[in-house]
Amino acid sequence: MSAPQRHLLGLKGAEEKTIREILALAVRYKAERKTLSWRPLAGQTWALIFTKSSTRTRVSFEVAIRELGGNALFLNANDLQLGRGEPIKDTARVLGRMVHGAIIRTYAQSDVEEFARYAKIPTVNALTDDEHPCQILADIQTIEEKLGPITGKKIAFIGDCACNVARSWIYAAEILKFNLVLAGPNGYLSPVTNSHVTQTHDVKEAARVADVLYTDVWVSMGMETEKAKRAAAFQGYQINHELVALAQKHALVLHCLPAYREQEISEKIFEERAPEIFDQAENRLHVQKGVLHWLTELPVDA
Prior knowledge:
CATH topology of the largest domain: Rossmann fold
CATH class of the largest domain: Alpha Beta
Low-confidence stretches: none
Shape: globular
Helix content: 25-40%
Oligomer: single chain
Mean pLDDT: 95
Number of helices: 11
Largest sheet: 5 strands, parallel
Order of helices and strands: HEHEHEHEHEHEEHEHHEHH
Number of domains: 2
Radius of gyration: 19 Å
Distance between the termini: 23 Å
CATH architecture of the largest domain: 3-Layer(aba) Sandwich
CATH superfamily of the largest domain: Aspartate/ornithine carbamoyltransferase
Number of strands: 9
């Protein structure tokens, strides 16, 4: 009997072994980008199915696929019959016979899961309303290359603690055993938690002696009608000099981008910490390679 098809549909329920294998691959792909000759996707075509717009996710996956020897086929909602109401499972069964893998960026987590079930090809969650697993893997790579192992570290997430990025951080905290403190206003804390997570409305307490200060936009895609309401609610939940002063001296400031300066992060802090923020963005490419290689189930020297 063949082994079950590998997917990366989220960090919920993921094994530490899986995360460590992907990160080890990502680290090596970054270190040896100019010399590494691995081509685990040689002769393969991978579909990128995006119903949400993207810069970093699309570019990092397309470059990763090509540098791993494969071909990338980008499809948005208007390119597919999904835009006219074809069921996900029918699209999945067609693409599953034509391409070798799929990377999906969309709204509903259930759509990614249903696609994987019916397509029977490796499937990656490149963002849903529930999770953003590849982003958090790149974040962890960034933290560990600058501060060492994340286990035992204090990560402070400031802002919308109910968003997809925060939720993936929550799952990662349980797997890798670090301390995650989520700080957000009333009505914007996460419904998901575990023993490694603390939630608070006190942004200063969250930042105190933190190893990492992390934030995301206040208004995620699909929530534009709430812009004014959210702008009012999140006043005081900005990463700025006052907040950074409470963290460890070695603390990183990270942002998954795009950033709205003078909202979730001050202009001065963003520019001062741009080197680490854009290292974080670059690591999306290396992690995507790690994910794609891991999905092929090839050995690390393949």
